[in-house]
Amino acid sequence: MLNPNIITLNNKKGMQISLMDWGATWLSCQLLVQGNYREVLLGCPPEQYDQQSAYLGASIGRYANRIAHSQFYWQGQCIQLEANQGEHQLHGGPIGFDKRYWQIEKCGQNFAKFSLFSPDGDQGFRGNVQASVVYHLSQQNWLEIEYSAYSDQDTPLSLTNHAYFNLLNGQQSEDIRQHYLQINADYYLPVDQQGIPSAALTSVNNTSFDFRQMKTIAQDFLQGEQQLTKGYDHAFLLNQRHIENQPVASLLAPDKSLQLQLYTSQPALQVYTGNYLSGTAQRQGGYYQDYAGIALETQALPDTPNHQEWQALGGMLKAGETYRHWTRFDFIMT
């Protein structure tokens, strides 16, 4: 049973964020919507976070998403990693960054900074890595998450937050599929049944992965290759390099009472529709069902260490260089 330290951030509009040191986790996000407080994040009791496997709101590292066969070649050497999803590695291994206490460096009414040291050999990765995450809550109802890290050896590195959103009610088992979603992405990455990339980046034209115009998640759900992964669990290559000051994605509640807009420095967005959430404990008793929330994970492309053609987009940190990426979650009452 965990005994985490919990930090609460507030702003003048009544938005309230809860964080904890276990996994540098985003625990809760409550907003005043139409005069009532609404929880928009999925979550379970804080002391039970080490018993759930859905990565609820956690900071993910060293490498978000999957590395095929838990290995990659670098400078002529095969680097063997710890496996935790069959023969593959998912979200940094069996004891990833989400399964550790981070140090609370400093915090105030509207910000908190956590740090974590990952030693050489951690989960099979090389290099000593010093990582940190800063959560900053604005007076305009947006939360910015900034990750930074440094390594003394070349290493795969892709950090993200794994929050699940349900803009109607993150406390109950509401189905996410009636939400509206828009993604500024012309390409997505096909994967096999285990989530490993199975083809080159592919145009979203004439596919169920075309979210360039806002549509309900249900509209093209479980069509085509989504059947392999029981829904959306795919990376989209973002267009933000070409579209200035535009959100990379927007999520809209079914009743259109609340919208979430995402901005990020990351090259890709993993969209996961909670395909295997069933059995995950809820905050107030009971269990979530599949598709109760959607994770919008900004990150490098999955399995980049095994794909040299994607490494220019990020995912491999060189020794002595600084990793820094941010994502902003902007909540808008509509």
Structural topology:
Layout: E1 6-10, E2 16-20, E3 25-33, E4 36-39, E5 59-60, E6 66-67, E7 71-74, E8 77-80, E9 89-90, E10 103-107, E11 111-118, E12 129-137, E13 142-151, E14 155-156, E15 160-161, E16 164-165, E17 180-183, E18 185-189, E19 202-203, E20 215-216, H1 226-229, E21 233-238, E22 249-252, E23 258-264, E24 268-272, E25 294-299, E26 316-317, E27 322-333
Catalytic activity: alpha-D-glucose = beta-D-glucose
EC number: 5.1.3.3
Pathway: Carbohydrate metabolism; hexose metabolism
> Count of helical segments?
1
The number of distinct β-strands equals: 27
SS-based class: mainly beta
- Report the oligomer: single chain
What is the terminal-to-terminal distance?
40 Å
Order of helix and strand elements from N to C terminus: EEEEEEEEEEEEEEEEEEEEHEEEEEEE
The helix content is under 10%
Question: Radius of gyration, rounded?
Answer: 19 Å
Mean pLDDT value: 96
Strand order of the largest sheet: 10-11-12-13-27-23-22-17-20
- State the shape: globular
Ranges with pLDDT <50 over ≥5 residues? none
Biggest sheet details: 9 strands, antiparallel
Strand content: 35-45%
Pathway: Carbohydrate metabolism; hexose metabolism
Family: Belongs to the aldose epimerase family.
EC number: 5.1.3.3
Active site: 162, 297
